[in-house]
Queue: 2 jobs
Job 1
Amino acid sequence: MRTAIPAGFLTHWYGEKMEYYDKIAPGRKMVVGVGSALIDILAHENDAFVDQAGAVKGGMTYVDDEAIDRILERATRAPAVVPGGSACNTMVGIGELGGQARFVGKCGNGRMGRLFRSDLEKHGVEPRLFASDSPTGRVLSIITPDAQRSMLTYLGASAETSPAEIAAMSFDGAAIVHVEGYLLFNRELIQAVLEAAKKAGARVSLDLASFNVVEEARDILPDLVAQYVDILIANEDESLAYTGVRDEAAALEALCRHVDLAVLKLGVRGSRIACQNQRLAVDSYGDGWAADTTGAGDLWASGFLFGLVNQMPLARCGELGSLCGHAVCQVVGANIPADQWLTIRNGMEAKWQKIG
């Protein structure tokens, strides 16, 4: 690991008003993630391998199960295999931070499905998983020397989640329901999720997930955001696809037009947050070096949403997001090592002890 995270980084989180908490269901701290239950296959290869695999550099492409096997036959080294999926990664981060987290999705009945469930429980996440006889979905994430990841996704059992299975009971007690943008490829399902989340009295957070997801959903996305979404999270590429605007300030204004809270993630340049009349700039953490950017946005959301439901000021929510995003970039895959989670938690606890 390149950079140690000092416990003293998390400072001054007490004695300040959390500007957004009054819009979240009183007394609730549960964040529920909804998305694809997937196994991540992490392969370090070059740009030529990305091209030969038919992947979109920095994006996500759906493929069948056999296509992943064929591509892996050409891999130059053995890949790592870990549980993953965007919303799942975010919930794991919240669980590791000591928060209340639940994941809703569908996986297979076999060994990979059991691995997925046990991994959630290990990280303090409540699994509400629908079961299928189909294989658990897989994502081949090709990591190039520039730390970019290009994804080839076989949804497997996760694609079988039906609107009828998504009921308000999936979201009981939820303060925030966090939806991964990849669900936009299943329009009936995301509609059911959004309606059920609102029926449960939760705020809805939507991570736009990938620029090509936004492009594919351009005809329905603006209306869904305006009608259901409270918190909208995007990186630069996703923001450009959604707003058509490159300028950071103008893009942030476009993102927040129909939501209470908008986030524009800028990688090593930090992030920008808009909430009502507030406009905040949050620095990134570290020197910009990354072993792999897999899960960076997912773990940024972990810190940010954990901060929101724990009444932290927005700037501190962004700082915790930056810290978690940085930590995951120091390792391959989306799993921050236990010792680093301990450092982060100890830093928070030291500050909270001063409150009382």
Note: Residues 1-16 have pLDDT under 50 and may be disordered.
Job 2
Amino acid sequence: MWCEPDAGVRLLLHAYRDRELATAAANIIRKWKDEEPRALWERLRAEGPPVCPPVDAREVARLLTIMRWAYANVPIGHNGERFTIPANGPDAPLTFGANNFGTTETTATGLDKAPTLPATIADDARKVDPREVARLVLCQGWTMQPRGVFRHPFGGFSQSGKRGNGCDGLTRAGMMTRLTEAPTLPATIADDARAIDPPQLPPGVVVYIDPPYQDTTGYAHAFPRSEWIPVVRRWQAAGAMVVVSEAEPIPELMADGWHAVRIDGERKGQKRTFSKQQAEWLTMSEPPAWKPSVQLGLW
């Protein structure tokens, strides 16, 4: 895990873990090779400090070009000539000299050769607290039992009113075992889906959204249907198969030719006894490969 508050450094870290991003940035730098170096340098610097997020290949290219030239405090030509500002003022003609600070091509080649490293990037190490993970797992493991009974871990009363002599859920040793044996998944975590603009996606990408169900149990974070429908349409337009969980088929999406499947009959174990929402539907941008069987009433 890399924790880095500086936007420019975060851009570099993203390039180190994303081969496609690094290659795109290198290609952008190569497109600048025929521009007059000083004019290019001043134009790129005039755009201001690096910006991240979003993670943009051009911003990576701009940052690296400025950084490479910043060591000499002057721009460097494509073939390695160093542009030296003469003593009689910055407006005088630039002179040339040898340099060891790199060129646009060496910068691009450096990106091409950069290793691709598996990593998670956060902007603040204080936001990731292992103790808080442990506290959450312990509380959750002792709250919801496999049979749908809420029980205090030390012999409290269950929903049925019967006193228990212990916890039917995980022990602390069981929780530790599950945590240490949990698979490591490559993933990016964001706190707001609305801010993500997906690129064009390859075939086979599936996007699943489980938004707050309309007119049912309240949620800590409001995300009304009017806000998440544009999000799922954006991912569909990018090429993903999109699947939405809700208490009903989504009328706005069904009108666009989406498909709906009811799945609550396939639930195993604990039933939804704590919510007004009993039905659960998947509204899908593509036809389902399989539908659960539906039991018909006798009368």
Note: The chain has three domains: 2-121, 129-183, 188-299.
